[in-house]
Amino acid sequence: MLDVYVRTAALLIVAWLFGGMLLFSAGFAAFLFKNLPPAEARVLIRKVFPSFYLFVILLAGLAMALFWSTDSFSAALMAIIVLSTSAGRQLLMPAINKATDLGLRKRFVWLHGASVILTLGHIFIAAVVLSRAVN
Questions:
Q1: Domain that holds residue 6
Q2: What single DSSP character describes residue 71?
C-alpha cells in the first residue's frame, strides 16, 4: 500500500515539473518579452534561469528518488533530466551568457537553440513518465 502513495507522490511531482517547465518556457519568457523592453527582459531572464534550472533539478531528483523502488524506468528518465539540467546549468547557461556579453550573435543563437531543445526534451520526458501512469 505504501508503494501506491510513493508512486502517487512521484507522479504529482512530475506533473508539477511538467507544468512548471511548460509555463516557464511558453508563458513566463514570452510574457516578459511582450511586456518589458528587450534589455530589461534579458536581464530578468538571466537572473531567473539559475532558479529555473534548480527547480527542475530538485523536482526531477525528488521524483527519481520516489520512483526508485516502484518504477526504475521512470526513475532513470528523471535521472536523465537531473544530469542534463545540471550540465545545462553549469555549462550551457554560462556559455550563453558569455556569448551574449561578447556580442557573439551566431554563437548565442546556436547555444540558445540547444537550451530550448534541452527544455523541450525535458518536457517530453516528463510527459512520457506521466503517460506511463495512464496505461
A1: 2-134
A2: -
**Range 31-60 average pLDDT:** 94
Widest distance between CA atoms in the chain: 57
- C-alpha span between 133 and 65 (Å, rounded): 17
Characterize 11-36 residue by residue with b for buried, 16 or more Cβ atoms within 10 angstroms of its Cβ, and e for exposed. Answer: bebbbebbebbeebbeeebeebeeee
Task: Count up the domains in the chain and report the number.
Answer: 1
Residue 134's pLDDT is what? Answer: 83
pTM: 0.93
- Residue of 110, 116, 60, 55 lying closest to 83 (CA atoms): 60
pLDDT in tens, 89-110: 999 999 999 999 999 999 999 9
CA–CA separation, 1 vs 8, rounded Å?
Answer: 11
DSSP 70: T
